[in-house]
Design a protein that fits this description.
With about 600 residues, the protein is α/β, with parallel strands linked by helices. About 40% of the residues lie in helices and about 20% in strands. The protein has 22 helices and 18 strands. A hairpin with a 2-residue loop joins strand 8 and strand 9. The structure holds zinc ion.
Length: about 600
């Protein structure tokens, strides 16, 4: 590498990739990079000398084989071009791609089928040339590199893979990191698969023997490869903020999917035999019966993130046509330390909710479909109420998160411990506040009412579309209206909407007047001057959204409202009255989140009904 001389004349790179690459042999060194930086005006004539010397120094002192772009990134150059962006390694890599006329790729580990791509070259080969195969299609192999001029491997790999090589430029540190990770993991899966296929016939017999004897339950679940794969899977799921991990056996292969911000993403396919062993390992850790595969089972695991934070996983298995399916729900350990504003409560609703939940007795209901965040709201609320002077008891199905300051009980239909039995038992435990997981039947509703009438605060959930409909639902179950009048103090409906990624959202969204009218129309909310739209960046996995927030419709039961509950209750009249009493319907709550630039009209329209 000739780094000693300063670049005299800028050598502009040609935009034509064919001309830029191998026909004209070049070396990607500091001299070339700085001549391009100068030509593009990223560094100016006055600064180039010092920066070049600095990068040269960094490179010289680096312990073995630093990529020149990494040295440039460490100089922390600020571009002389408008925007004056700091030239990070990502930005420099993207810039390099444009200079040599190749696409830039940010390596998304979730999109790479590493078992397939790891077959086209060995780990040492990839490491030697600093390349990483990313994608194998029928006619092409996509390979990431950070050195477009070092291509002596290209013809060889093209021949071996019998594919056309399609080069992309990626961040050199990413290439190094993922090369190490992928090949280790691919080897684990391959080795695990090898052992399993060989032992398959044997193992089937073995399992039958074990089943009869109910002895040694551990098969291959403790195989080091399987241990690695499961650890890696959890690490990835935590890193990607997944809420659920699905392990799904199919006819020939098995599929791993993550749910992120409410949407499922297929992550990997693994050989069926590997998944069987993974499932066995996870069941073992969850203290479930590993042999039993014909009945659904539940379990729980406590593990830690790389950062050392404790995470709780709830497991459930289900026998399917192709084998045992396992779902792991990941509980965000921060859930119970969140505040109402962090859950998306506007200040006014937070105040009203606080006032309601501080009442000494009565029933408060949270309604919404499964996955609308009801449990999070209840846990957050209870946690705030659970001081040392107060006995908070819950009866749940299942216990979603174990919290030390509550006394939690799990419903067990097998031994006739239903919600109503649970409440009955709790009542003898001198409770102050009772949380009932869900009111599904008259028996549970009656116990909840009984508890409220005897001076307890009862919180529970119901599946209804909006807050006023909860009254109709309880009447339908057969609860006498005068008991509702005597006990019900508040109802809240809620939904979750995805929030725009703060890193990439763009203020140039457009919104048709009719659409806005259907969202904020009846309330005459002026259309905001700025509408944000989702763009997509690596932080949000190109979806444009990152995280979710709640929208709430809070009904406080007033004297006027109870007057309307009777033998012939009219839902429309209930809605009108609750709005007069200060309730903002879900769609209006959503409109406010659009005005604040937190979410989009699409998200709000997806989860809320039109204003009645
Ligand atoms: Zn983004």
């Amino acid at each position: 590498m000739n780094d000693n001389a300063l670049p005299a004349t800028p050598q502009p790179a040609t935009a034509n990739p064919a001309a830029a690459r191998p026909t004209r042999p070049r070396t990607l060194d500091l001299q070339l990079i700085f001549s391009w930086l100068l030509a593009d005006g990223i560094v100016d004539k006055t600064g180039v000398k010092a920066h070049f010397a600095q990068a040269q120094g960094i490179l010289r002192n680096a312990p073995g084989g630093m990529h020149p772009l990494v040295a440039v990134a460490q100089c922390k150059l600020v571009s002389c071009q408008p925007l004056h962006r700091m030239m990070t390694l990502d930005l420099l890599s993207e810039w390099l791609a444009s200079k040599v006329g190749l696409p830039f790729a940010r390596i998304d580990p979730l999109r790479i089928d590493f078992t397939k791509v790891a077959d086209v070259m060995s780990a040492s080969y990839a490491a030697k040339f600093h390349i990483l195969p990313l994608e194998l299609t029928n006619d092409a192999l996509v390979v990431a590199t950070a050195d477009p001029y070092q291509v002596e491997w290209e013809s060889e790999i093209a021949k071996i893979s019998r594919r056309k090589i399609s080069l992309v430029i990626a961040n050199p540190l990413d290439i190094a990191q993922y090369t190490a990770q992928f090949f280790t993991l691919a080897k684990s899966i391959r080795d695990a698969n090898k052992t399993n296929t060989q032992d398959m016939a044997l193992r089937n017999n073995f399992e039958q023997l074990v089943e009869m004897g109910k002895a040694n339950k551990q098969f291959d679940a403790n195989d080091q490869h399987i241990v690695n794969i499961v650890d890696w899977l959890w690490g990835y799921a935590f890193e990607q903020r997944a809420s659920d991990i699905h392990l799904e056996p199919k006819r020939d292969v098995a599929v791993i999917r993550f749910r992120i911000d409410g949407v499922l993403h297929q992550v990997y396919q693994v050989p069926a035999a590997v998944m069987i062993a993974m499932t066995a390992r996870i069941k073992l850790l969850g203290r479930m019966d590993v042999i039993e595969k014909r009945r659904p089972q539940d379990g729980r695991i406590k593990t830690r993130t790389q950062a050392g934070q404790e995470v709780e996983l709830r497991l459930s298995t289900l026998p399917t046509a192709f084998g045992e399916k396992l779902v792991m729900r990941i509980f965000d350990p921060d859930v119970v330390v969140k505040t109402l504003p962090e859950l998306g409560f506007p200040p006014d609703d937070a105040r009203r909710w606080d006032a309601l939940t501080k009442r000494p007795h009565g029933i408060i209901l949270v309604t919404g479909p499964t996955g609308s965040g009801k449990t999070t709201t209840l846990y957050t609320t209870l946690k705030a109420l659970a001081t040392s002077e107060v006995n908070v008891c819950t009866v749940e199905d299942p216990i979603e998160m174990v919290e030390a300051s509550f006394n939690q009980m799990q419903v067990q239909p097998g031994i006739d411990l239903s919600f109503s039995d649970g409440v009955k038992a709790l009542m003898r435990q001198d409770p102050d506040i009772i949380m009932v997981g869900e009111i599904r039947d008259l028996g549970t509703a009656e116990m909840a009412i009984q508890a409220a009438l005897t001076g307890h605060l009862v919180l529970s959930t119901l599946h209804t579309n909006d807050a006023p409909a909860a009254v109709m639902r309880l009447l339908e179950l057969g609860v006498p209206y005068y008991l509702l009048e005597a006990t019900l103090i508040g109802i809240m409906a809620q939904r979750l909407v995805r929030t725009l990624c703060p890193n990439c959202k763009s203020p140039d969204g457009t919104l048709n007047d009719d659409v806005w009218h259907s969202i904020g129309g009846a309330w005459k909310i002026p259309k905001p001057a700025t509408i944000y739209r989702p763009i997509g960046c690596p932080e949000c996995r190109q979806t444009g959204y990152r995280g979710r927030t709640g929208i709430y419709e809070l009904l406080t039961v007033t004297e006027a409202f109870t007057q309307l509950v009777g033998d012939e209750t009219d839902l429309h009249a209930l809605r009108r009255q609750s709005v007069l009493d200060g309730m903002k319907p879900l769609r209006i709550a959503g409109a406010m989140k659009i005005v604040e630039g937190v979410t989009t009209a699409e998200e709000v329209l997806k989860v809320t009904a039109a204003l009645a």
